[in-house]
Amino acid sequence: MKTLQVIVNKTGGTAAKMGDALVGELKKAFAQAGAMADIAALDGKQIPEAIEAVARSGRVIVAGGDGTAAGAAQILAGSDTELGLLPLGTFNHLARDLGIPTDLGEAAKVAVNGQPVAIDVGEVNGQVFVNNASIGLYPLMVRKREGLRRAKGWPKWLSTLPAAFAVLERLPHHRLRLDWGKGERAIVTPLLFVGNNVYSLDRGEVGKRGSLTDGKLSVYAVTHRRRAALIWFALRALVGRAERSLDFETLGECETLTV
Question: Model pTM?
Fold first, then answer.
């Protein structure tokens, strides 16, 4: 049996729910997949150092959500080390777009026996991102949500709604100038969204990507609107009911963007 380094964000959504049973379930899943798991269950802040310590082991498995995956990519992108994902976070957008199963046993089989593929990453001011980068409502909401989690000990899903409403109450709009090689364009928007490859805006498919290898950034801006309309948009977006023509202005696809 080969041994794989498995680094777990124990505070991630699914991982936190599994509690003390987590390590045992992981060892069992990897044994059934044909490998031994050398598991380190850590808090989020400890994970980058742990990944760096095993970065030359050939294949590193991280168990967590999108934040954990992005942190691993920051360290491993461009190297020869393969990154395996176990989707144990709250949303797991990257794992979903890669087709990695949500079932722990099936995901372990992919981590052990799967063939590596290269995917694109984006970079903003030297920081790697695997999903998206944004200015406006979303990063403000995430900051507020994480503050609630630290202060009250709430899970991510419970912190999201009050954080969203707190940000929407302020209704911040940003005046931005964008340039992706076709001259500057001025916009006013509550949220500028830049995706690593093309995100779907089709109803029921919002937030999904058909490819992670097209070498493109997709640039969207939420339409400038009043508070009531923006709250209605946020509620619909949370349940995947955003409308392309009503809610977004598609600004384009590019390889580089200056904001």
Answer: 0.86
